[in-house]
Amino acid sequence: MSELLAVTREVFDEVMVPNYAPAKIIPVRGEGSRVWDQEGREYVDFAGGIAVNGLGHCHPKLVEALKTQGEKLWHLSNVMTNEPALRLAKKLVAATFADKVYFCNSGAEANEAALKLARRYAIEKFGAHKTQIIAFHQGFHGRTFFTVSVGGQAAYSDGFGPKPADITHVAYNDLAELAAVISDNTCAVVMEPLQGEGGIIRPTDEFAKGVRELCDKHNALLIYDEVQSGVGRTGDLFAYMGLGVTPDILTSAKALGGGFPIGAMLTTTDIASHLKVGTHGSTYGGNPLACAVAEAVIDVVNTPEVLNGIKQREQLFREGIEAINAKYHCFSEVRGKGLLLGAVLNDDYKGRSRDFLLASIDQGLMALVAGTNVVRFAPSLVIPEADIKEGLVRFEKAVAQVVNA
Ligand SMILES: *Cc1c(COP(=O)(O)O)cnc(C)c1O
Q1: 1 band by pLDDT with thresholds 50, 70 and 90
Q2: What distances in angstroms separate CA 42 from CA 13, 353, 392, one per listed residue?
Q3: Residues 110, 39 share a domain
Q4: I need a surface site. Which of 106, 121, 310, 362 has the fewest CB within 10 A?
């Protein structure tokens, strides 16, 4: 075997497009909820990629699925179908409201497919006028130009020239504002059933049900972006199950592959019928390697052991953060659901979430932010209690580091 080229963090600045600002460390190995960097330093992982490694690092069942499929068949393109894709689709259909599945490679692509399908459906069924897409401020749906324009943060979509048209943004949890703009020209309402990037914001029950009713009233499709909230994250396989609201189209990615890239769009037979042969596609979508890993993810996550364990873990996180806050007084609340939690900074620390993230790395902990005011945690759904406790010890040190600086 040839020698591996030695690389350091400096190489990033030398040869990578500067659209990211990665941490100073380079992780090289992970196991469960622990990660080691180039120097052999160990970290507790409360980030899970960004809510991606739902079963931690190198879960034995996922490694086995990848190895087994890796020795059988890697790729065919969609000129042929393949067994892992069909098995995964069967399992997703059996576990959800959906009858049909479309596979792609990322969350943005799943949402791109959902938005294109919604437009097709509305135009073909009701006429060319029905193209309005309503989405929510602070919503995040990916970085393709359509999805980033539907996302509710102008900072991410500005500066790229003319945007896809007929997209309206309203305030999350404000039913009256939605009621004022929705009409028979509305093609779809797109929402995260728990806003992730936007700050870990739960919809009220009244809002979630009201959105569904308004969509029904105006023949608009309800698209749930479950790229972050799905695959067990909130304690249900998908967050819609806990809300008691069923969408017309659901998108999944992130934890669906547990770290292997895959995205999926789920919908009903009637709606799916509008994506006829040739209307949409993806070379890698439904790739056998990705689908074999995702099938193993669903097999493990969609069990009472894993889903029921999430509540206890959420409790440990909430109690741990509250205890830290009782000493250091930097958070105004802990919000979210299941293992997608946000510690919201109070006015004294407003805008400083990144300081907490960087201090966490210093203390051997991987955490996330959700905007400038929220420290976000999205650990493995099967993180051992001992790792939660050790991670919280390190988080307390990180908080002390920021507070006492
Ligand atoms: C991360 C995310 C996306 C985008 O997923 P990518 O795989 O990065 O394209 C879309 N929607 C939500 C809710 C997300 O959290």
Answers
A1: low
A2: 24, 22, 15
A3: no
A4: 362
The verdict on 232 and 276 lying in the same domain is yes
Helix (H/G/I), strand (E/B), else coil: 81: coil
Which residue out of 143, 144, 147, 228 has the highest number of ligand 1 atoms within 8 Å of its CB and is therefore the one to mutate? 228
Residues 224 and 316 grouped into a single domain: no
Look up the domain containing 34 and give its range. 7-57+303-402
Boundary residue ending a domain (275, 300, 325): 300
Contact, 378 vs 47, CB < 8 A? yes
The pTM of this model reads: 0.98
Judge whether 232 lies within some domain: yes
Annotated binding site for N(2)-acetyl-L-ornithine: 143, 282
Q: Which two tokens stand for residue 385?
A: 């209690």
Contacts of 170 (CB under 8 A, 6+ apart): 134, 135, 136, 137, 177, 178, 181
| Residues whose beta carbon lies within 6 Å of some atom of ligand 1 | 106-108, 111, 140-142, 192, 196-197, 225, 227-228, 253-254
Q: What is the pLDDT of residues 69-113, one digit of tens each?
A: 999 999 999 999 999 999 999 999 999 999 999 999 999 999 999
Does residue 52 lie within any of the structural domains? yes
236 with 164, same domain: the answer is yes
As annotated, the binding site includes 107-108, 140, 143, 225-228, 282-283
The reply to whether 63 falls in a domain is no
| Dist. CA 89 → ligand 1 center (Å) | 20
